[in-house]
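Title: Prediction job returns without error message
Component: structure pipeline
Severity: low
Priority: P3
Assignee: unassigned

Description:
Job completed but the reporter wants confirmation the result is attached to the right record. Sequence as submitted:
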Amino acid sequence: MYSVGIITVSDKGAAGEREDLSGPKIREMLPADKYEVVSYKVIPDERKEISAELMRLCDDKKCNLVLTTGGTGFSPRDITPEATMDVAQRNAPGIAEALRAYSMQFTPRAMLGRGASVIRERTLIINLPGSVKAVSESMDFLMGNIEHGLDILLQYDSECGR
């Protein structure tokens, strides 16, 4: 069972001006027999706040996987990838690159996505787009494809007695 943290990055969502549909969509699409959501938060597009929440989920909650949604576009407020890189210890660019390539079959605007994928300690962090449609497409692609990477991260922990 993989532990998961979900972060929706949205100024309007955090202010209660817009209902978050993307975070709940992520939760809905995680197979319940493999993934347990241990945290879900909606936070504003503030770099320090995003980084702090990512560190909390990685370092304190020890999540195996953290999925973010929102803040990956070209708007000046879209800084989720930068906040993610702030906490990264190792880059895992193939996941973000594969997500963009997969999304290109649905819309050529996928090339404008700036999402990142990184590792911090024993946690895989993946930035997803903000729209429900894009989240759904991304989750369809990810599920079943990332477990091998998660298993490698967890295998190290079990080999070390953690």
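Comment from assignee: result matches the submitted record. The two ends are 16 Å apart (CA to CA).
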